[in-house]
Design brief:
This protein has 297 residues and is an alpha/beta fold. The protein has helices at 6-18, 21-28, 32-46, 62-86, 102-116, 172-177, 228-236, 250-254, 284-293, and strands at residues 51-53, 58-60, 94-100, 123-129, 143-147, 156-159, 166-170, 194-195, 206-210, 213-217, 224-225, 242-245, 259-261, 272-276. It has three domains: 3-74, Orthogonal Bundle (Arc Repressor Mutant, subunit A), CATH 1.10.10.10; 94-154 and 271-293, D-Maltodextrin-Binding Protein, domain 2; 166-265, 3-Layer(aba) Sandwich (D-Maltodextrin-Binding Protein, domain 2), CATH 3.40.190. The chain has nine helices and 14 strands. It is elongated and about 75 Å long. Pfam families: HTH_1, LysR_substrate.
């Protein structure tokens, strides 16, 4: 294929990954009609259909799947190399894209970047809050953040946070009307503020551990959130018990605005790690961000 047709391949790969001409056009900054014509021209030159188009979605044909899986990763390698070359200068520069959960973004990334960014004005950091286990290669992120136990084995992992603990908390007004739970199983009789995460697809069970014994409790309650702030605020208003990262409620516990229960069942577990694919030539900007986020405790 002629060199000037590489843009056609980029267009096809983007549409195939997005499964939508509309989303792909936005990502590439072109009109939907122009993108459709580009992909159609590629199919005509190859003499084979690459995409199946319906009113609801766009999906690769078997030939399209083969092209996507063979050409896609090579374009990612080229993109990474060009990015590294463009940043080979005295002052590191560029945009680093990171996907992370809400708590990791608030408790770990934000404090580190507060110190890092003022001294590195040419480095931009884009953080996307996402509760799912995002495929950072397919979604073109430079790195992602997960708890240490969730990092894929084929990724490089860098510890960026201390060990964590969870806390079960409720307001004084809640406990004036309800008894304190003495063991995790007692939570089934309480109005618990539930958590729904895309990672699991259903209600997140509350996890406990004591003396090596692990226990998951499927709680019930009137409220379901995927937001830290909303769970904390609902607990403060006396609407139920919340299962929260300890650091997000410590001050409220000290101020007697929230009461902590089952503390002896909430043991520490591995904290957050930044993970990223192996790169032979990491950009200077990415290397600086890694060092800024590295846990030094």
């Amino acid at each position: 294929m002629a060199q000037d047709n590489f843009n056609d391949l980029v267009a096809f790969i983007t549409v195939a990954r997005e499964e939508s001409f509309t989303r792909a056009a936005v990502k590439l900054g072109v009109s939907q009609s122009a993108l459709s014509q580009t992909v159609r021209s590629l199919e005509e030159r190859l003499g084979i259909r690459l995409l199946t188009r319906t009113t609801r979605r766009v999906s690769p044909t078997p030939a399209g799947e083969r092209l996507l899986h063979t050409a896609g990763p090579r374009f990612e390698e080229i993109r990474a190399e060009l990015s590294a070359l463009s940043e080979m200068r005295d002052k590191p520069a560029g945009t680093i894209r990171i996907t992370a959960g809400e708590h990791a973004a608030i408790s770990v990334l934000a404090p580190a970047l507060d110190k890092f960014l003022p001294d590195n004005p040419d480095v931009n950091v884009e953080i996307t809050v996402d509760y799912g286990l995002t495929d950072i290669v397919a979604e073109r992120y430079d790195a992602g953040v997960r708890l240490g136990e969730q990092v894929a084995k084929d990724m490089i992992a860098l510890r960026i946070g201390p060990p964590m603990r969870m806390a079960v908390v409720g307001s004084p007004s809640y406990f004036r009307l309800n008894p304190w739970p003495e063991k995790p199983q007692d939570l089934t009789a309480h109005n618990c503020i539930q958590i729904r995460m895309p990672t699991y697809g259903n209600i997140f069970p509350w996890e406990f551990e004591k003396d090596g014994y692990e226990l998951k409790v499927r709680v019930d309650g009137q409220l379901v959130f995927n937001s830290l702030a909303m769970r904390r605020d609902a607990a403060l208003r006396g609407l139920g018990l919340a299962y929260m990262p300890e650091d997000q409620v410590q001050d409220l516990i000290k101020g007697n605005k929230l009461i902590r229960v089952l503390e002896d069942w909430c043991e520490p577990f591995p904290g957050y790690h930044l993970y990223y694919p192996n790169r032979r030539h990491a950009s200077p900007a990415f290397a600086l961000v890694l060092e800024a986020l590295r846990f030094k405790g």
